[in-house]
Amino acid sequence: MLLQQIVNGLVAGSAYALIALGYALIYGVLGLINLAQGELYMAGAFGLWMGVAWLGLPLSWSVALGLALAGIVGLGMERAVFRPLRQRHPLIPMLAAIGLSIILQSAALLVFGPDTKPFPLTLSPTVWDFGLFRISSLQALLFGSAILLMSGLIWFVKYSKMGKALQAVALDMEAARIVGVRPETIVALAFVIGAMLSGAAGMMMAAYYNATYPYMGVLTGLKGFCAAVLGGAGSIPGAIVGGLLLGLAENLGAAYISSGFKDAFAFALLVLILLVRPSGLLGKPRHS
């Protein structure tokens, strides 16, 4: 049973980690928190659902549509909210993001209705039994895809030209501008990448639970935020560690303590870690 809960926790945690990476990227570059990240998770899920159910596209095209929709919404957030308010007190863009989050939920409610949308495809994943635990082909696919996306982001940030520019802007925006980096482009890129990672998480969980609905990003977005803070705000490795730990804590707590408090374990773990290490597991204090 323990190994089974660990498998389930890692699958759920990989989705939290992808959302947390979106928070980490934006906080790392701007020092701001985008509390509408959960709605990007929802946008990706609805993009996939529209591709499959409305447009009848192949799965690969539907995935591309989900990523594109999340990326466009993320870019719109940067242009409409965060760019005009960047120089204001950090609380102002945060409050504006909450308003944007409610607007996006209402828009989804208006377009798609309040009902949960199942996918028209009936997925029949293969289940592999290893004795102490079982894992389905869908779980393996979701976890493998998440690991691939995380690895790709780490490679991009560490080794690509744009990734190094992103690091430069995160360290000192004005100094980066002097050496020829265009901070506005890099900030927009961070929003788009963060949005697409959250959108990918939304598509994974929508396929896993066979459910897409307008408020699906509210609680999951908060858990992604918890994962980002738990690992260390602005830290990419920290976001991954925080997300996986959160998924494990949820599933182990639900299995061995009480399933009724499953959602509370994420926030309890966050409080406990921050009491011991206020900057998170892998984070460093941020100086303005």
Could you please describe the fold and organization of this structure?
The protein has 288 residues and is mostly helical. The protein is 74% helix and 2% strand. The protein contains eleven helices and two strands. The chain has a two-stranded antiparallel sheet with strand order 1-2. α2 runs antiparallel to α3, α2 crosses α8 and α5 packs across α6. The longest helix is centred in the N-terminal third of the chain and has 29 residues. The protein is globular and about 60 Å long.
What percentage of the residues does DSSP assign to strands (E)? under 5%
Detail the poorly predicted runs: none
Counted beta strands: 2
Helix content: over 70%
Largest sheet: 2 strands, antiparallel
Count of helix runs: 11
> Per the principal axes of the C-alpha atoms, what is the gross shape?
globular
Tell me the radius of gyration.
19 Å
Order of helices and strands: HHHHEEHHHHHHH
Provide the residue-averaged pLDDT: 89
Side-by-side strand order of the widest sheet: 1-2
Alpha-carbon distance between the termini?
A: 47 Å
Structural class: mainly alpha
What structural keywords apply?
mainly alpha; 288 residues
Task: Give the SSE map.
Layout: H1 2-30, H2 37-54, H3 59-82, H4 91-112, E1 127-129, E2 134-136, H5 137-159, H6 161-171, H7 173-178, H8 183-209, H9 216-231, H10 236-256, H11 262-276
Antiparallel strand pairs: 1-2
Helix pairs in contact: 1-5, 1-8, 1-9, 1-10, 2-3, 2-4, 2-8, 2-9, 3-8, 5-6, 5-8, 6-8, 9-10, 9-11, 10-11
